[in-house]
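User: For my dataset I need records formatted as: sequence, then structure tokens, nothing else. Please produce one.
Assistant:
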Amino acid sequence: MHAELSAEPPAARSTPVDTVPRDARPAGWRGRLAAAWPRLKRLLIAGFFLLVAVLLVNYGRHVDWRAVRAVLQAYSAGTLALAAACGAASYALYCSYDLLARRHVGHELPRPQVAAVGFVSYAFNLNLGSLVGGVGLRYRLYSRLGLALDTITQVLAFSVVSNWLGYLVLAGGVFVFFPLVLPPGWALDSTGLRWVGALLLLLAAAYVGLCFARGRRRITLRGRSFAVPSGPTALLQLALSCTNWMLIAGVITLLMNGRLDYVSALSVLLIAAVAGVVAHIPAGLGVLEAVFVALLVHRVPQAELLAALIAYRAVYYIAPLGLALAVFLLLERRGTARSPGQ
């Protein structure tokens, strides 16, 4: 056989460039752009990080940090306790996504373990980014507790959809019916914000409609099969997620000490959430603050605004992370346990 292959004339083995089929050639500038896009995307994200850092440093030079500290010291214990209670309720609702996914997918892990995994993944997700918390820790903890990778993927997908379904409805409703008054000179005005809101509502309606039309059937995405939730399950996802986002906005509103109305706090939070996801910065460091400052500095005194954001970070991000670390270590110790039927 080797002799037959080597006997082939050289002209037949080496095809000139001119005879290569057109479909096999690079697709011109589009092909070059597609090949360069990963590197270009990294450069754009790095540029965005740099821009945010420069803006924050420049802004920080003009901040009266003594006034910010005075505002922080003036918070009453009652205000901080109420904000912490809203934050705890928000975390509990987020854990309910995994509990609802347990019923939808049909796995048999004990409910306390499922809630613990949801809590740990959410706290780490907020502080270290979605790849570490929302994805990485879920796969690690659930796999150590005995779930198959395919089941974990379905739980993860269900939880992510639950979280953003409420976002779509709340952001859509707020942008359409209570559009934020944006600072002068912004490219997007209230009319543009209404159009964005309408699109978000349509996306949410499409998902709920799909669940009512094809509930409990299976669809295949990227080679993986997922069961479509039933219509009532989709409505429960929507209710839980909307309440969760509203509680988060409640934490910020409480810490604003009456300087900002609830709807405006909710609207800016929803805008900042998307900015943080697009930027891929762990904990949205700098992005959350930059969005709030850009949209509200003309309405809220500088010291009060920054103090509220610092307090929000402490109450909703840092404090739960310490508890989540302890729960994570406990789950790691029990990781060899297996639920019935696994």
